[in-house]
Amino acid sequence: MPRFEHRSKRPPASAGQLSFHPLTPDRWPDLEVLFGPRGACGGCWCMTWRLTRSAFEHKKGDGNKRAFRRIVNSGAEPGVLAYLDGQPVGWCSVAPRSEFSFLERTRVLAPVDAQPVWSVTCLFIAKKWRRCGLSALLLRAACEHARRQGAKIVEGYPVALAKETPAAFAWTGVAPAFQKAGFKEVVRRSASRPIMRALLAL
Question: Residue 15 — φ and ψ, nearest 5°?
């Protein structure tokens, strides 16, 4: 994927230059730096929606880390990393919906229709750079990454609550960031969890 750059008078770009790159095996150490010893949150390592609940709990921590690294080493490129002046500051998981078994088990996020879609299932931003507009930029980069692999639709499942939501409970992103990135709500089966889509031009 070509280097994507952004400059703005507002942070985070005011502190330097942003770039976005798919997660490949050579960039795994950058993901480790970004996620830290907790694997982003509670030993998740971006495996929550890829496993059954019991399997996730069994693998929590190092097991999930090894499982996710195997996916990356397979060449799948399961998401996009954001860098600020060469340092990893954000992550967005995006892959075909069929890779996330949780989405087959939930009524609230059941398929909208029969069209093949890619799903954004996680947004993780380094604490220092949260609420700076980075999520929307990362979502756009994730859509571009998916488009280059043949995706026509990217779907997201953000949190949509009236009050400010703690970061630990908003790891699928928040609705305003998706709106800024060009996503539109297509269905809402729960007051707090819309399904939003971006249609990609090929």
Answer: -90, -5
pTM above 0.70, yes or no: yes
- Residue 135 makes CB contacts below 8 A (sequence gap 6+) with 90, 123, 125, 173, 174, 177, 181
Return the axis-axis angle of helices 28-35 and 62-73, rounded to nearest 10°: 150
Give the CA distances from residue 132 to residues 12, 41, 85, 135, 159, in Å, rounded to whole numbers and listed in that order: 6, 21, 16, 8, 18
- Angle ∠(51,77,98) on CA atoms, nearest 5: 40
Residue 81 contacts residue 27 (beta carbons within 8 Å): yes
How many whole angstroms separate alpha carbon 57 and alpha carbon 64? 9
For residue 110, give the nearest of 189, 192, 197 by alpha carbon. Answer: 189
- Measured CA to CA, the distance from residue 66 to residue 51 in angstroms comes to 13
CB 77 within 8 A of CB 145: yes
Tokens 């996730």 correspond to what residue? 56
pLDDT bracket for residue 157 (50, 70, 90): very high
pLDDT digits (tens, 9 = 90+) for 121-154: 999 999 999 888 999 999 999 999 999 999 999 9
Distance from C-alpha of 54 to C-alpha of 22, rounded to nearest angstrom? 29
Question: What is the spatial distance between Cα 8 and Cα 83, in angstroms, rounded to a whole number?
Answer: 15
